[in-house]
Each structure stands twice: as structure tokens, then as C-alpha cells.
Write a structure and sequence with these properties.
Layout lengths: L11 H11 L3 E2 L11 H12 L12 H15 L5 H4 E4 L1 H13 L5 E6 L5 H8 L2 E6 L1 E3 L2 E3 L2 H7 L4 E7 L11 H11 L5 E5 L19 H4 L2 E6 H4 L8 E4 L2 H14 L5 H10 L4 H4 L1 H17 L4 E2 L7 E5 L8 H12 L1 E2 L1 E2 L12 E5 L4 H11 L3
Parallel strand pairs: 1-13, 3-4, 3-7, 7-8, 8-9
Antiparallel strand pairs: 2-10, 5-6, 9-10, 11-12, 12-15, 14-15
Helix pairs in contact: 2-12, 3-12, 5-6, 5-11, 14-16
The structure holds 4'-deoxy-4'-aminopyridoxal-5'-phosphate and glutamine (GLN).
The site of glutamine has 5 residues, from loops.
Pfam families: Aminotran_1_2 (PF00155)
Cofactor: pyridoxal 5'-phosphate
Protein name: Pyridoxal phosphate-dependent aminotransferase
Length: about 375
């Protein structure tokens, strides 16, 4: 078969979830909550179905939802996107990311990817015929950071796009205003586009503000800003997200979107639109997850794992060199089998073999789940 992605296997998340089931392990691998969403949100979707919202919605998304998204971005980040021309509802962030890449990357174009990187960027670049240019994050005593000088040095006349992700999966690091200034300086005077994956935008801790690319007047002019309701409302299985982009970019995005999925399921869009009228659920999310982060960190503090900073997302990265010298993928499997706790090896987020002795745990779990995992992790 002359297929397009011969080197791509099953995602590490699926593999580790399967292994967790096989060994009866607590699954802190794949990122998803093990608790339910707000019943009010389910009720709103139920109402939408009963009200007959069950046929195709407009190609770009239900107008009330696009309005609610535009209003939220304006309130939080100060940029007023035109809901009709600049917001498109997508089938999760994954489809937004893939369509943004497919509509803008030509064969041979280079796309700078900061690694470790979430796993859906590289296959999308490959399908577009683009050339990924990986730049490794710096990892030191104080955790992960983006080496902007190396990002700048990676730019060539063929660079078409730079992908950024904050809060960052898997490292839990965040970009701050100063990072965005460095990025702006790198792209100034070029036609490089920005793809900003902000699916964890409402999970930034310790009183810090999410530095959205939408907030940056210069970067926003050339950016696809992507988010996902799966993360924000504890409904990863619903696969509803969106992209905000200047009108000219949205026109091109929608050309791909309309033949990729055409539309996104209607009742969920109505339900989410109604639910967004109250900002409390996303405004309360940082405190909700910070409590879980602190519970998990406090539990690991007395263990032989070494905690890395966790400024955002629902992930905690740890070094395990005091416990084992296995490579990350082997250690994650060993942990699942022997300690009955599943984790994700950070090496899975690199395009080249990279061992840092670090694995990722997801703390989007009931406190009792976290405590059960901790009991076992503390014994190692
Ligand atoms: N980007 C990042 C960084 C993610 O962690 C995820 C979720 N795993 C996605 C994109 C995809 O989001 P969705 O499930 O809404 O497609
Ligand atoms: N984004 C989730 C994670 O990082 C996984 C989503 C998936 O399984 N593809 O764990």
C-alpha cells in the first residue's frame, strides 16, 4: 500500500489506556476527567434535541455559539472577533488544528514545532506535504521553557507556520507575555502564520493570567487560535471546539472545514451556547484544578519522584531517576504493570528519540482516584 503515514502507529494515549485496563491500573495516562460534567449542561443539550435542533447547523457553527465564543474572547482577552466571519465551530480542537494546517501549508513549506509537542501536529503537517522543523524546549531545574533564540534560528524563507501551545501538553508549562513578545519579534516582517493551541486556556494556576495569542494585537492578526470545550466543560468525548482567526484566514479555513466535516453536531452546539451565558464554570476552573494539582503534588512530595513545575493544564510531569533507569516508555509500562498506575512517557511527544527521564501524570481525576494512585506511587 502506498499510504501517506506509514510510520504512524496507534497513539500512546490509546496504548496506555489499553494497558491500564489490562492490568487494572489507575489510569493517570490519557488526559480525560474521570468525573461527570455539570448536569445542567446535559439538560441544555437534552432540551436542544427535544426542541428539534437535530438537522445540519450552518457550516460555520450555530450563530448563538459563535456569538458566545466571540463575547468570551472579547471579555477575557480584549479582542473582538466578528462571530460571523472570524469564528468557526469545529469537531474538537483536533479538527481545527488539522484544517488550519491543511488550508495554509503547501508541499515543501516548513512548520516549526516546539517539542515535546502534542501528537496531532506532525501527521497533519505530513498530510499537507509540509516539512516539520522541530525545536526542543529547554528543560532544566526550573522546568521547561521555549528557547526563542533557537526558534528564531530555525526560521528560513520557507517557514510557513509556527505552532505554539500554552498551557502546554505534556509539560504543564505556560507562555507568558514576554514569550509572546519574543515570538512577535521573530515573525515581524515575515508572512509566517501562527497556530496557537490553547485548549487548556482555563487551566492556569497561582493567579497567573493565560497569555492568549488573541490578546496580542500583532500576533492575532496572523493567528489561528484554537480551543476545545472538551477540556473546559469536562466533556472530552463531545469533540466540540473552535478556531478564531482574522476573516481572510477564516475564509480559507472554512474551505477545508466544509469538505472535511462540513458541520459539527447541532444539539451540543445549542447546549454549549446556552451554558456559556454563565461565565462561572470557566472562571472557576483554575481553582478547581489547582486544588487537584496541589493534592497530587503534596502526595508526591514525600515520594522518590521529583516534581517539575505545573503552571497550567491538568498534567504533572515528574522525574523518576531515583526509582529507575529504564527509558521512559518502558518505565511507564512498568509503572502500569507493577505499581498499577498508568502514566505517559514524555518521549512520545518528540519526533526524534529523546530521553529526559520524565513521565506525565493526568490529575483530572476524582480526589479518591488521585489518593489511590498516590498510595501506590509513595511506596516506590
Ligand atoms: N491539543 C492539545 C494540546 C490537547 O491536549 C488536545 C486533547 N488531547 C487536543 C489538542 C485535542 O482536543 P480535542 O479533543 O478537542 O480534539
Ligand atoms: N489530549 C489527551 C492527552 O494528552 C489525549 C487525547 C487522545 O487520546 N488523543 O492525554
Amino acid at each position: 500500500l502506498r499510504t501517506r503515514l506509514p510510520h504512524v502507529g496507534t497513539t500512546v494515549f490509546t496504548q496506555m489506556s489499553q494497558l491500564a485496563v489490562e492490568h487494572g491500573a489507575v489510569n493517570l495516562g490519557q488526559g480525560f476527567p474521570d468525573f461527570g460534567c455539570d448536569p445542567r449542561l446535559v439538560g441544555l443539550v437534552d432540551e436542544a434535541m427535544r426542541a428539534g435542533h437535530n438537522q445540519y447547523p450552518p457550516m460555520t457553527g450555530v450563530p448563538a455559539l459563535r456569538e458566545a465564543i466571540a463575547a468570551k474572547i472579547a471579555a477575557l482577552y480584549g479582542r473582538r472577533y466578528d462571530a460571523a466571519a472570524e469564528i468557526t465551530v469545529t469537531s474538537g480542537a483536533s479538527q481545527a488544528i488539522q484544517s488550519a494546517i491543511l488550508c495554509s501549508v503547501h508541499p515543501g513549506d516548513e512548520v516549526i514545532v516546539i517539542e515535546p509537542a502534542y501528537d496531532c501536529y506532525l501527521p497533519a503537517i505530513a498530510l499537507a506535504g509540509g516539512v516539520p522543523v522541530p525545536v526542543a524546549m529547554h528543560v532544566g531545574e526550573r522546568g521547561y521553557s521555549v528557547p526563542w533564540n533557537r526558534v528564531g534560528a530555525a526560521v528560513t524563507p520557507r517557514t510557513r507556520m509556527i505552532i505554539v501551545n500554552s498551557p502546554h501538553n505534556p509539560t504543564g508549562s505556560i507562555l507568558r507575555a514576554a514569550d509572546l513578545e519574543q515570538l512577535a519579534a521573530i515573525v515581524a516582517g515575515t508572512d509566517i502564520l501562527i497556530l496557537s493551541d490553547e485548549v487548556y486556556e482555563h487551566m492556569v494556576f497561582d493567579g497567573e493570567q493565560h497569555a492568549s495569542v488573541a490578546r496580542h494585537p500583532v500576533l492575532a492578526e496572523r493567528a489561528f487560535v484554537v480551543s476545545s470545550f472538551g477540556k473546559t466543560y469536562h466533556v472530552t468525548g463531545w469533540k466540540v471546539g473552535y478556531v478564531a482567526a482574522p476573516a481572510a484566514m477564516s475564509v480559507e479555513f472554512r474551505k477545508v472545514h466544509q469538505y472535511n466535516v462540513f458541520t459539527v453536531n447541532t444539539p451540543m452546539q445549542h447546549g454549549i451556547a446556552g451554558y456559556m451565558a454563565d461565565p462561572a464554570p470557566y472562571l472557576e476552573l483554575p481553582a478547581f484544578y489547582q486544588k487537584k494539582r496541589d493534592l497530587f503534588r503534596a502526595g508526591l512530595a514525600g515520594s522518590r519522584f521529583e516534581l517539575l513545575p505545573a503552571d497550567g493544564t491538568y498534567f504533572q510531569c515528574v522525574r523518576y531517576s531515583a526509582i529507575s533507569d529504564l527509558p521512559e516508555a518502558e518505565f511507564a509500562k512498568w509503572l502500569t504493570r507493577e505499581a498499577k498506575v498508568a502514566a505517559i512517557p514524555v518521549s512520545a511527544f518528540y519526533s526524534r528519540p529523546t530521553e529526559s527521564g520524565i513521565v506525565r501524570f493526568c490529575f483530572a481525576k476524582k480526589d479518591e482516584t488521585l489518593l489511590a494512585a498516590l498510595e501506590s506511587l509513595q511506596r516506590l
